[in-house]
Amino acid sequence: MYKIAIIDDEFHILDMLSTYLEINHDVTTFQNPQDALEKIKSSDFDIVLCDIMMPQMNGLDLLKDLRANHNDTKVIMMTAYDSMDKMLEAHEYGAKHYIKKPFQSLELVEQKIIEVAEH
């Protein structure tokens, strides 16, 4: 069981992921990345799933902020946009994986979480 934070401005994504992942994990969801950032800095999450494109704060900026504060929480970025630049930037700032939305399956999302958490 992993402690997972999911950050996405779309409620249906949060609801879908949390409903599926709560069966085996401790899940906290955030629609506002700024609220999530403060909570992540003061908690012990194993994994953060974070959307890249959000109106309040870019997911890459959240990732950069975590790294600037020496937070070594493992981050998986999510996006509906297929951009090699964003993937490379996410990797450069320490994202452990990148998942494209819509998801092929929720089982694959969980598999990536487990892979990232165990490495």
Spell out the key features of this protein:
single chain, 119 residues, alpha/beta, Rossmann fold, five-stranded parallel β-sheet, 5 helices, 5 strands, 21% strand, globular
Number of helices: 5
CATH class: Alpha Beta
CATH homology superfamily:
Response regulator
The portion of residues assigned to helices is: 40-55%
Low-pLDDT runs of 5+ residues are none
Distance between the termini: 15 Å
Outline the biggest β-sheet.
Answer: 5 strands, parallel
**Quaternary structure type:** single chain
Spatial order of the strands in the main sheet?
2-1-3-4-5
Structural class: alpha/beta
DSSP E strands, number: 5
Element pattern in H and E: EHEHEHEHEH
- Mean pLDDT value: 92
Radius of gyration: 13 Å
Question: What is CATH's topology name?
Answer: Rossmann fold
CATH architecture: 3-Layer(aba) Sandwich
Number of domains: 1
Approximate shape:
globular
Proportion of residues in extended strands: 15-25%
Which helices and strands, and how do they pair?
Blueprint: E1 3-7, H1 11-21, E2 26-30, H2 33-41, E3 47-51, H3 59-68, E4 74-79, H4 84-92, E5 97-100, H5 106-118
Parallel strand pairs: 1-2, 1-3, 3-4, 4-5
Helix pairs in contact: 2-3
